[in-house]
Design a protein that fits this description.
Blueprint: H1 14-19, E1 26-30, E2 42-48, E3 61-62, E4 65-69, E5 85-94, E6 100-107, H2 112-123, E7 125-128, E8 130-132, E9 135-137, E10 139-148, E11 150-152, E12 155-157
Antiparallel strand pairs: 1-2, 2-10, 3-8, 4-7, 5-6, 5-10, 8-9, 11-12
C-alpha cells in the first residue's frame, strides 16, 4: 500500500514536483531486478491520472510494480559509444493493463543512441498495474533506472535478458 505525499507537505526534486503539480505523489524504491544491464535500485514517483472525486478517506493506493521484461533480441544488440553506467529518468504512463506508454527521457545521456536504447529498455517492461481500492488505474510515473553497460568484443552493449511471455502488443 502507498501513502500519498500531499502537495503541502512534500519535498521531492523540483522537476518531479513540476510534473505532478497539485496531485498526490507516491514514491517507491524498487529493488534492482538483478539482471544484466541494470545497475541497482529504481526510484519511482507516480500520481493518479484521474482522481476519484467521490472517494472519501480510506482510499488504498498500491504502486505499479515491474512484473516482466521482454527480450530485446530484435533490437540492435551492439550500440557503440554508450557510457559504462548511467542513470536515466523517464516520464511515462503505466496503464491499467500494466503497459508502458508515452515514455520520454527526462534526464540522462545526451547521446541519441543511448537515449533510444534506454527508451527501448523502458518500453520492454510490463508492470502489475497500480490499484485504487483494488481496481486497476492509469498512472503518470517518473522512473529513475541505473543502467550498467558491458564492453563486448571492443564494443559496448546492454546484455539482453530473455523473459517468458509473449511480446507486448
Amino acid at each position: 500500500m502507498s501513502v500519498p505525499l500531499r502537495p503541502s507537505s512534500r519535498v521531492i526534486p523540483a522537476a518531479i514536483e513540476a510534473r505532478f503539480s497539485r496531485r498526490n505523489v507516491y514514491t517507491l524504491i524498487i529493488p534492482g531486478p538483478g539482471i544484466p544491464g541494470y545497475g541497482g535500485d529504481w526510484v519511482m514517483w507516480f500520481a493518479e491520472r484521474e482522481t476519484d472525486s467521490d472517494a472519501q478517506g480510506g482510499v488504498r493506493v498500491y504502486a505499479p510494480l515491474p512484473a516482466r521484461k521482454y527480450d530485446l533480441a530484435d533490437r540492435d544488440p551492439d550500440p557503440r559509444g554508450l557510457p559504462g553506467s548511467a542513470s536515466v529518468q523517464f516520464a511515462t504512463v503505466i496503464d491499467k493493463a500494466g503497459h508502458v506508454s508515452s515514455a520520454t527521457v527526462l534526464r540522462g545521456s545526451d547521446d541519441a543512441a543511448f537515449r533510444q536504447r534506454a527508451l527501448q529498455e523502458m518500453e520492454s517492461w510490463e508492470f502489475k498495474p497500480a490499484l485504487r481500492n483494488g481496481v486497476p488505474m492509469d498512472v503518470d510515473a517518473v522512473v529513475e533506472i541505473p543502467f550498467r553497460f558491458q564492453s563486448v568484443g571492443g564494443a559496448t552493449r546492454v546484455t539482453p535478458t530473455r523473459c517468458p511471455g509473449k511480446p507486448l502488443s
